[in-house]
Amino acid sequence: MALKARVLYDFHSENPGEISITENELVTLFSEEELDGWLEGENSRGEAGLFPASYVEITRDQITSNTNNNGLSSPKAVTPTHTSYTSPESQRGLGAGSGGSGGGQLPHQPGQ
């Protein structure tokens, strides 16, 4: 399974076994396991080696073969399954001035 990470900061390799990475670059990780603060992977130029784990953010995107490959595929959006706040409705005239009587929630029950 190929993990991807977005580079947050530039890193210039200084030692053998390290690779340089550039801000906003998309790198492929060989493993999500850190080795004393380092990750091993491949940069966009095909160079493989180590880079600081704190310089990248692992992306948790859905893995599909038909991704539009721009590296910015949106993560799964958190969609609220229900919103039970009544404060925005009080501005529309429902219970205005009552300040939270709670009586405005009964008419919003679906299926009845």
UniProtKB/TrEMBL annotation:
Q: Which Gene3D superfamilies match?
A: SH3 Domains
> Biased-composition ranges for Polar residues?
62-73, 80-90
Domain of life of the source: Eukaryota
Q: Which UniProt keywords apply?
A: SH3 domain
Q: Which SMART domains match?
A: SH3 (SM00326)
Annotated region (Disordered) at 62-112
Among Pfam families, the record links this protein to: SH3_9
| GO cellular component, as recorded | cytoplasmic vesicle; plasma membrane
UniProt protein name = SH3 domain-containing protein
Query: What organism does the UniProt record list as the source?
Result: Champsocephalus gunnari
Organism phylogeny? Eukaryota, Metazoa, Chordata, Craniata, Vertebrata
